[in-house]
Amino acid sequence: MRMVVKIAGALLDDASVVQSLARQIAQLAHQGHELLIVHGGGKIFTATLKRMGITSQFVNGLRVTDRETRDVAVMVLGGLLNKRVAGAISAAGQPAIGLCASDASCFLAEPMIHDEVPGSLGFVGYLTGVNLEFLETLWKNGIVPVASCLGLGADGEIYNINADHMAAASAEYVHAERLIYLTDVAGVLDGKKVLKAVSCEEVEDLIRVHKVSGGMVLKLEACKRALSAGVPQVRIVGGANETGLLSAANGGKMGTRVTTAFPAAAAGVGQ
Ligand code: ADP
Ligand code: MG
Q: Ligand 2 centre and the CA of 77: distance in Å?
């Protein structure tokens, strides 16, 4: 089965979690699944900006990414973290390759339009295409591609892409059968309870009554996008759980399934 797995940046701060995820990815790849791993940034990106004395401006909560900030994003996301993930998977016995946008034009981007002005956030983009032929060559040769959340623009510049949206758009472009978000919480929470399923219709309500906020809003929007683009299965699972990824990949019950239909109608379907 072809699957896109997004690893939250926060999970990469913990070496034992990275190792556990790498083992699960290796196991799934050995079983013959075609995996595309997409990872986010985590604390190290902000910490590196701070160390280099680069301050950021935010517009409506979005970081304006000037050239200097973008360069740090490429260093940290496309460099250190990308190699950390690919290295851990390779060390777990499954060859993996770390990819940054520009490698074989693997991930293409266009500047984000904000307040009707394209590029007003600097080098922030959205994914517009993938080099599927290249990814398929890797899968055929038993190599797991690991993508940092960066895209190559038509101008030859590298753009920073929100990792949740990059995972959703990639799942669409590679025709993935499953999209799995590994995050730092056990799933979509209602108080302390993990919701077993959330339908696209319910997402708006959950946001309106403030049951869902912050990064989870973006993630659920990305899930909706993937579902409307035809990705059949979308799930949000706790990535720190030792079997979270295996469970999500094998249609287990952990975490939250995001569905097009209301949960009652979706219960048991496609599990
Ligand atoms: P990621 O790196 O996986 O994208 P984010 O920090 O962007 O993680 O989004 C996950 C965060 O969303 C959680 O850690 C939590 O703080 C926040 N959140 C807000 N509402 C909810 C909710 N209802 N259920 C789960 N997480 C929520
Ligand atoms: Mg997030």
A: 14
Beta strands in the chain (DSSP E): 2-7, 34-39, 58-59, 62-63, 96-99, 107-111, 113-114, 117-118, 124-130, 144-148, 150-152, 158-161, 178-183, 189-190, 193-194, 197-199, 233-238, 256-259
Atom 23, ligand 1: which residue's CA is nearest? 212
Structure tokens at 245: 């990824």
**Four-residue CA torsion sign, 174, 72, 121, 182:** positive
pTM > 0.85: yes
Decide: 145 and 135 in contact? Cβ < 8 Å.
Answer: yes
User: Do 258 and 234 meet the contact criterion of CB atoms below 8 Å apart?
Assistant: yes
Averages of pLDDT over each 10 residues, the chain, 271 residues: 97 96 98 97 90 88 89 96 98 97 95 81 95 98 98 97 96 98 97 95 92 93 96 97 96 94 52 41
Q: Which ligand is nearest to the CA of 213?
A: 1
How many Å lie between the centroid of ligand 1 and the Cα of residue 7? 13
The whole-angstrom separation of Cα 114 and Cα 193 is 35
Eight-state DSSP code of residue 260: S
Q: Choose one of 183, 207, 234, 258 to mutate for the ligand 1 pocket test, by most ligand atoms within 8 angstroms of C-beta.
A: 183
d(CA 95, CA 261): 38
Do 228 and 261 touch, CB atoms closer than 8 A? Answer: no
**The length of the chain, given as a count of residues:** 271
Number of Cβ within a 10 Å radius of residue 222: 25
User: For ligand 1, atom 3, which residue shows the shortest CA distance?
Assistant: 183
Exposure pattern of 106-133 as b/e (b: 16+ CB <10 Å)? bbbbbbbebeeeebebbbbbbbbbbbee
